[in-house]
Write a structure and sequence with these properties.
Layout (H helix, E strand, L loop, with lengths): L9 H31 L5 H28 L8 H7 L11 H28 L3 H25 L4
Helix pairs in contact: 1-2, 1-3, 1-4, 4-5
């Protein structure tokens, strides 16, 4: 077994970086969805949702950067083309979403996919003894679970 300068198994680190790149691709789709619904939202909830969607896309943009930097920290190259993002996407692409309920439902669906990927990475990071990735995933998960709960509450749905 070989170790990198972080003291992590190089094989496990490469696998984690690949998983993080998949998360990065999906976060980029999520981010674009948020930009689209921010721009296109219509109706009586416009003012509240327009601001909320901006808050969410600002946060997603920050997380994209954190994920890419973690891939670099692990010694790999972050994906950076839309071709790669679309190829790896599990998050649905929202086309011309302007109705409030459809926009919020798209967020819930997207975050559900991201949470699944993050939990897989969390487990792999624990197995690799990678506390940096583990901590980042743990933080993402707790924030996004709260957002899913709030969005479902707005939709009048339970988890």
């Amino acid at each position: 077994m070989s170790y990198n300068s972080l003291g992590l198994d190089t094989k496990k680190t490469k696998e984690l970086a690949d998983q993080l790149n998949q998360l990065l691709a999906n976060f980029q789709i999520y981010y674009q969805n948020l930009r689209g619904i921010h721009w296109n939202i219509r109706g009586k909830n416009f003012f509240d949702l327009h601001v909320k969607f901006e808050e969410l896309y600002t946060d997603a943009n920050m997380k994209v950067d954190l994920i890419a930097e973690r891939v670099l920290t692990l010694g790999e190259t972050p994906l950076h083309t839309f071709e790669d993002y679309v190829k790896l996407a599990k998050v649905p692409v929202g086309h011309n979403v302007s109705k409030d309920e459809n926009a919020v439902a798209l967020i819930v669906t997207s975050l559900t996919e991201l949470l699944q990927l993050e939990r897989e990475i969390l487990n792999a990071a624990g197995d690799a003894n990678d506390e940096g990735t583990n901590s980042m995933m743990s933080d993402f998960i707790s924030e996004q679970e709260k957002t899913v709960w709030m969005m479902n509450a707005w939709l009048g749905k339970s988890l």
